[in-house]
Amino acid sequence: MARWHMRAALAIVSCTVTLNTGTLGYLAPGQSSSMSTTPRARRGVRALKAATLPKVAEGDAKAESSPLRSVDVYATLPTMDLRLSDVTAGRPANSEAHTIDLARGPPIADPFALCRDELTPFSDNVKALVETENPVLSQAATMFFEQRHGKRFRPTIVALMAKALPVVHARDDAETCKAKQDRLGQITEMIHVASLIHDDVLDDADTRRGGDAIHKMYSNKVAVLSGDYLLARASVLLARLQHKQVVEVMAKALDSLVSGEIMQIKSNGAADKKAAADGDESRDAPAAAPEAKPSFFERALAALKLGKDGKQKKSEIAARDAKEMELYLRKSYYKTASLICDASKSCALLAGHDFDSATARAAEEYGYHLGLAFQIVDDVLDFVVDSDDLGKPAGADLSLGLATAPILYAAQDLPELRPLIDRRFKGDGDVTRAYETVRASRGLELSRKLAHFHAQRAVDAICRVAPDSEARDALISVCYIVLSRNK
């Protein structure tokens, strides 16, 4: 069923638009949009250098040949060792840039207040857009918009971006342009809620936003159909914007959401199969013969090779750690950052900015880095906030077998975590042991530094193109909120 409703989500979009094969990269001023997608130089774990991720994960050759795999992830790590350096070092020169200082606080205490009045009728508007003849389906589809709508983070970003970016050469008058940008915010939230409903089915989650998950309140079938229906309605509303490039960009966001979920399912499924196979082999294998004691000559030869083998082993460990972090960032981009990133760029396109303009690219970059910072902090909170405040079970990622940034950073200093990661925390007591080990390690601190790095890059991006205004200050302040949030 999981594969079926993922295909259904993509089919909804594919009947509306044919995706191009462009890339998601941020071009330097004056650089051609046909830039090479060759990955940058790899980095070691101890001296983290910026790197563009490969297009697909190793072993995913089939996905690479698919025309839908058009997104080239621009996930980067800081250009310095997080253990030693200031995360703001190495930033591009920009006289208009704002440096994040959590001790000083954000420029605006409550950036959401700037567009709160505009979003007040949001729930009623969305409810009217998703009315169906089936009352159960309508109730399930609108649950998150009426009772558990949260802060409406994504619609707020779209609304603030619309205020911050000037309207230039728009095909519509100012009023129509604003109406389309408001509708884009609604579409973005509908896609996000649909992804939450589907994720909860796939993860068999019990709660969401402090209440029962939709599939627990009704059934898996109702939850899947509710999510599909929201995606279908979002696609229809997207087409009514009558902006081909916006449709293409937002269709990529849908593709990315599904790709991220597939990555997660494949990694967990492979781990489960390996664990089962290892268990079968251990039951059937004959008892091992006692090992012969090595001779003096063998021990001497091993000592001579120790230095060389040690260097090779360190190199292999560094390559493994780098690959794991890259895959983590890729999945984080797909599942979280892609929708914020593409909605931000679409907002700029509706304001009349060209697809490859500096403004559209900066809006895209802001959403990309903000989305990654949001996800990294979310993964940190999984270790430091209890279930009631978090709105979902604490340690849920570990229970799903997911190695997030705190785990990966902790494992670089604590090798005892490695076997737990390799078996996806499936052993008895693995989840509790990993949870306590990470909390006592530097994994949480380094993860927060990584989130700070991306939040600062988001601020740098919006400061490059948005004129000084209250809306720009609000977008900067959102980055503060992402870094300091506790739920």
UniProtKB/TrEMBL annotation:
Q: Which UniProt keywords apply?
A: Isoprene biosynthesis, Magnesium, Metal-binding, Transferase
Q: Which domain of life is it from?
A: Eukaryota
Give the required cofactors.
Mg(2+)
Alphabetized PROSITE patterns for the sequence: POLYPRENYL_SYNTHASE_1, POLYPRENYL_SYNTHASE_2
Question: Which Pfam families does UniProt cross-reference here?
Answer: polyprenyl_synt
What SUPFAM superfamilies is this protein classified in? Answer: Terpenoid synthases
Name the protein family: Belongs to the FPP/GGPP synthase family.
User: Which PANTHER family does the record associate with it?
Assistant: ALL TRANS-POLYPRENYL-DIPHOSPHATE SYNTHASE PDSS1, GERANYLGERANYL PYROPHOSPHATE SYNTHASE
Q: What is this protein called?
A: Polyprenyl synthetase
- The organism encoding this protein is Aureococcus anophagefferens (Harmful bloom alga)
